Amino acid sequence: MTPANNLERVLTQGNFAVTAECGPPRGADPDVIRKKGGLLKGHVDAVNVTDNQTAVVRMSSMASCIILKDMGLDPVLQMTVRDRNRIALQSDVLGASALGIRNILCLSGDHQSFGDHPGAKNVHDIDSVQFVDTVRMMRDEGKFLSGQEIKGRPDLFIGCVENPFADPFEIRALRAAKKVKAGAQFVQTQCVFNVEKFARWMEMVRALGIHKKAHILAGITPLKSPGMARYMKNSVPGMDVPDGLIERMGSVPKEKHRDEGVTICLETIDAVRNIEGIAGIHIMAIEWEDIVPEIVKQAGLLPRPIPA
Amino acid sequence: MIVADRKPFDEIMDMIAPYDRVLLLGCNECVTVCAVGGTKETALLAAQIRIKRQAEGRTVDVGERTLERQCDPEYVNTLAESLDDYDAVLSLACGCGVQFVAENYPGKPVLPAVNTRFMGVTEQPGMWAERCQGCGNCVLDRTQGICPVARCAKSIMNGPCGGSHGGACEVNDQLPCAWQLIIDRLKARGKLDTYSEVEKPRDWSTSRDGGPRRRVREDMTL
Fold this sequence. Notes:
The structure holds two protein chains of two kinds. By secondary structure, chain A is α/β, with parallel strands linked by helices. Chain A contains twelve helices and eight strands.
């Protein structure tokens, strides 16, 4: 069985890590998560569970993490600051730790106007940097944000995200540095389609020495079709899909779209592996989790390490 | 100023349907500046109501008056006698004005003719935009004069989030990203090095989150 803090061990022992994303269902059926977990098991070091991604209501990340944990996977609990204030966030941090979840990823969250409840009130009591700082303080100082003492500190490996493709570009490494300064131990990036820009971001990351203080995992998303590529480019916040990639996807016959997507994905993995400071990849195969084993296998990343 | 939008005409007509004598009450402050509830707009709405009611074959006595301010007892108190001639007041002031008239004349229905939107500025003629959320603990000295609380869709204090693109907010391409503006100004002032400081969580108790707010100056109270 995978140890609960598998991801941290894989990374700290210097292995090239592989994580994957698992989107919970829009319903209460636990078998959806079990099926996705079953596909990923043995192929990844940890599984991120999204927290109502694109502000669409789904099964809770916490519950889905527990289902995965019971299957022997190491879940990464994604938590956005969009839907919970500091009281709820800290309460869930304690709860997650108590349930044996050992990884947390702190995010802002997509604005609710993108989701299925655009009339919802958002929270944003604290931001994602402050949330990272809060979890670190709870764990390392044994204190709540209020300064009051915690009896029974949470034990979590803290992650954050950064989007190298959002603007203004020149502060994107500085912002990652801010999150690492606040306590982030690993950074998972937005999907890399524009490898050249990503490499430039990594130059800034290295100049700031961020890669020596935190493990940086490059976000990888296989494209299913030219339509998906266009949708990602035009409708998903903060996504940079170069026109050349969209054209390349469109240049092959329809029945070859998925193969071409996987080929591009493998090329991207190869490219980011050769960038100094990249500690692993985070595969976000959106509603296409069954392709992950093939990608990991073809990328030559099997078998996954079993850390001591 | 407080910026408002007039409610849809049909909604206003439904609201005043039970009444035959209605006083339209404009306000000479913010809603006049944002061209929604001053003397001019009050006259226009009164004319629209008269025409519509006439078309429906139902008479209506529409009065028009504009107070200097509907949020101040000095002016609201002058209404007393004129209200006797009306069944209801249709106020074109912001929500503060509507409520203040209503609480001073509890026997009279006071209805809102506008939707109060935000505290903002006139960016150009005919265009108003939000600038302040009244959080009660101003940070503009630390954010280069640009408010992330009011102007960032996520009120992020360590921004920008991953949705900022080409200077715009992820919510709307027409909405400037407040953090892009802050970074631009930090750069222009040669202060980008201050960006690496982690801004700590805010105390929202001075904001609406602490409950409805009140300010008392003992030296001025009666």
